[in-house]
Amino acid sequence: MAGNTMEAIVLKVMDYREADVIATLFTREQGKLRGIALNARRSRKRFSGALDLFARLTVTLSVREGLSRLEEASVISLASHIREDITKVALAGYACELTDLLLPDGLPNLRYYRLLRAWLERLDSAPPSPMDRRFYEINTLNILGYRPELERCSVCEGPFDGSKPLTFHPSAHALTCRNCAGAGTAVAPTVPLLLRASLATSRFGTITFSPEELADAGIILDNLIIAHAGKEPKSLRFLREME
């Protein structure tokens, strides 16, 4: 049976048996797939070192339920500059782990594919930026249907206009104005505006956070990601240790 040719980003690679490789791929055409590449570590003709983390490839797959068969792969981009910086490696690994945790198998999501590709290209070409990371996270939550309420208080429905003190409630994953707050964490009033602005543009590096705003955005986004992933991603724990 002829395989399907598609574009893919390598999320995870695991050696299997003597020469095989099992790769988790996020494909543009068919979403997340797992494929076994038989004899991949010996076949330079079919794979030629293409199965590297963060690489963007053209792959030929015989798609099957569970574990597909990876017939061939050729490199579009190896994102080689990412591997030159431990912070870039950590951020790229985080994005790949989130993709694996948050997206189901076999469900295409072109908007998210474009976001992940843009984030890896940004890491490959520019210095690592915590503002870019938060831009990636809020857009991920938005595309996958987990966007928090950023327009108004979840209790009184008063608008977030950047002037009133706010509180984030980790257990409810919600923002409120300070007058409606019980226990929670104080958040700079401009943070929802910056997160909304991050959703209104498709370009990394266009939204600027102050250190306080960046820390408060991190409180919101880290909590939401852990909640929707069902656990703390290992790569997120590593990023926190680095910080």
Which features would summarize this protein structure in a list?
single chain, 243 residues, alpha+beta, OB fold (Dihydrolipoamide Acetyltransferase, E2P), de novo design (two linked rop proteins), 2 domains, five-stranded mixed β-barrel, three-stranded antiparallel beta sheet, 6 helices
Structural class: alpha+beta
Major beta sheet, specifics?
Answer: 5 strands, mixed, barrel
With strands numbered from the N-terminus, the spatial order across the biggest sheet is 1-2-3-5-4
Low-confidence stretches: none
Tally the beta strands: 8
SSE ordering: EEEEEHHHEEEHHH
Which oligomeric state applies?
single chain
**What's the Cα radius of gyration?**
20 Å
Describe the global form: elongated
CATH architecture of the largest domain: Up-down Bundle
Summarize the structure.
The protein has helices spanning 86-102, 110-125, 130-143, 191-200, 211-229, 234-242; strands spanning 4-16, 20-27, 31-37, 56-62, 68-77, 166-169, 174-177, 185-187. It is α+β, with helices and mostly antiparallel strands and 243 residues long. It has 6 helices and 8 strands, in the order βββββαααβββααα.
Topology:
Blueprint (H helix, E strand, L loop, with lengths): L3 E13 L3 E8 L3 E7 L18 E7 L5 E10 L8 H17 L7 H16 L4 H14 L22 E4 L4 E4 L7 E3 L3 H10 L10 H19 L4 H9 L1
Helix pairs in contact: 1-2, 1-6, 2-3, 3-5
Question: How would you characterize the overall build of this protein?
Answer:
With 243 residues, the protein is α+β, with helices and mostly antiparallel strands. It has two domains: 4-80, Beta Barrel (OB fold (Dihydrolipoamide Acetyltransferase, E2P)), CATH 2.40.50; 129-242, Up-down Bundle (de novo design (two linked rop proteins)). It has helices spanning 86-102, 110-125, 130-143, 191-200, 211-229, 234-242; strands spanning 4-16, 20-27, 31-37, 56-62, 68-77, 166-169, 174-177, 185-187. The strands form two sheets. A five-stranded mixed beta barrel has the order 1-2-3-5-4. A three-stranded antiparallel sheet has the order 7-6-8, with helices on one face. Strand 1 and strand 2 form a beta hairpin. Helix 1 runs antiparallel to helix 2 (110-125), helix 1 (86-102) packs antiparallel against helix 6 and helix 3 (130-143) runs parallel beside helix 5. The model has no long low-confidence stretch (mean pLDDT 93).
